[in-house]
Amino acid sequence: MNRTSQTDPIRQLPIWLSLVPVLMLIAMIVVTIRTFGSDSLSGAIQVVLIASSAVCCVIGMAYGKVRWKVFERMIMEHVASVSSALIILLLIGALGGAWMVSGIVPTMIYYGVKIIHPDAFLVTTCIISAVVSVMTGSSWTTIATIGVALMGIGKALGFEEGWIAGAVISGAYFGDKISPLSDTTVLASGACGVNLFTHIRNMMVTTVPSMTVALIIFLVAGLANEGPGAADLDAFRLSLAERFDISLWLMVVPLCTAVMIVKKVPALVTLFAASLMGIVAALLCQQKVLGEVAGGGLFAGAMQSLYGGTALESPDAMLTELIATRGMAGMMPTIWLILCAMCFGATLTAGGMTAGITRLFTKVSRGRVSAVASTVTSGVVLNASTSDQYISILLTSSVFRDIYDKLGLERKLLSRATEDSATVTSVLIPWSTCGMVQSTVLGVATLSYLPFCFFNLISPFMSVVMAIFGGRWEKSSEKVG
Predict the structure, then answer these.
(1) Can you say whether the dihedral through the CA atoms of 212, 217, 223, 225 is positive or negative?
(2) pLDDT: is 451 or 292 the higher one?
(3) Residue 67 and residue 61: Cα distance in Å, rounded?
(4) Cα(354)–Cα(203) distance, rounded to whole angstroms?
(5) Is residue 17 packed enough to be buried (19+ CB in 10 Å), middle (13-18) or exposed (0-12)?
(6) d(CA 470, CA 451)
(7) What pLDDT sits at residue 3?
(8) pLDDT at position 23, please?
């Protein structure tokens, strides 16, 4: 039996037709955001993604002669690929609630406001996030733990949430990109056939300059910020101490979590254990808070903080907003969005549109600069069209491997350009898995933090700049047969 007909369209789609669903998606999202604003993710964009998926199916079945079963199978495969991420997202919601009612995050904020100087907050936030991400190899874990605490500290210091989130994300993705423990780093180097540590060393050529520029911007912005005075900060810390039992003993929980991460305990196990430890800490140290969550019962309060979130009152309006959590239930709109995004990515691939889009980039790759520029553009476009950075990394690397070999370019240049685009820009796409998760965890809309993710924005351009002015490392030292 001919198995090819079961997975690939019989007819190759023209490039212009392959772009139709993507252009339609972007146009409809622009209109949706202008119409619904911040409520777009409550259902409108999900409808847009499903409608765009339907267009992919119509084009694929009418022009490419793709059978419906192929679309069904591809959708199941794409949804299955993010199943663990969906569970992780639910556990992140539980973790946020547990660490808030237990006083862990309030304790971090309490001492953070006291220790970190406001002028250096943004640059310090970026560096801290980078260090934690390098050690953990996970931008998601970094943002869900220390990132949430830094958001609270920044708001107390008077910074806009977009700036804070931008600093957290910039640092987290810098660390994720160069950490040997990062799954995207391992995936990019493996998919391109490059040694892991060779890949990491080569990425320093673009990563360090991009991060340096980002740190300078954050430093200048911090110096220019006019935050609250010392008296206001002392009043905020006092309100926090009145609301929670602040204790350095609570830092044992994040310390144990850090140890599990360093020991490479599976993410699901780590997040579940961290949430459980947070609830135990709440039962020991914050019984009054737990009682308020559900109206009296400690068990009910513990359960409510995990699945339903909290809405604790405080004399300080900003503090009331800061200590509110959403629990697992708060993650459901994001999960709904991820499922719809995976549906679009699956139908785009099954219908042959993804193959048509990648052909566009291969046609314009004629030399070092054009090859790198095409790789970077491919990574960004595939992030936007497939909604998943892993798919984008794999497709980009597989499409351009032969092109780089024919041009006599090192594969490590390909792996670097792939990471400079597919890895770091995924969080900037509102409907991608990374964009949706980080937006939900930090409580900041993707389009609100996007202009301030300077490392993520600079990296793709730096990749092209280094290709233009690059040295001998850009040329292959081996003959390509």
Answers:
(1) negative
(2) 451
(3) 6
(4) 27
(5) middle
(6) 28
(7) 37
(8) 85
User: Given a cut of 60, is residue 6 above it in pLDDT?
Assistant: no
- DSSP H helices, 244-331, are 252-262, 267-285, 287-294, 298-307, 317-322
Residue 269 φ/ψ, nearest 5 degrees: -65, -45
Tell me how far apart the terminal alpha carbons of the chain are, to the nearest angstrom. 34
Q: Is 50 left (phi over 0), alpha (psi -120 to 50) or beta?
A: alpha
| pTM for this model (two decimals) | 0.72
Give the count of alpha carbons within 13 A of 312, CB side only.
29
Q: How far apart are CA 309 and CA 270, in angstroms?
A: 20
Length in residues, the chain: 481
CA separation for the pair 481, 406 (Å, rounded): 8
Scan for tokens 């605490």, then name that residue: 149
pLDDT single digits (tens) 217-267: 999 998 887 766 555 667 777 777 777 888 888 889 888 887 887 777 887
Q: Which residues contact 236 (CB under 8 A, 6 or more apart)?
A: 113, 156, 228, 316, 318, 319
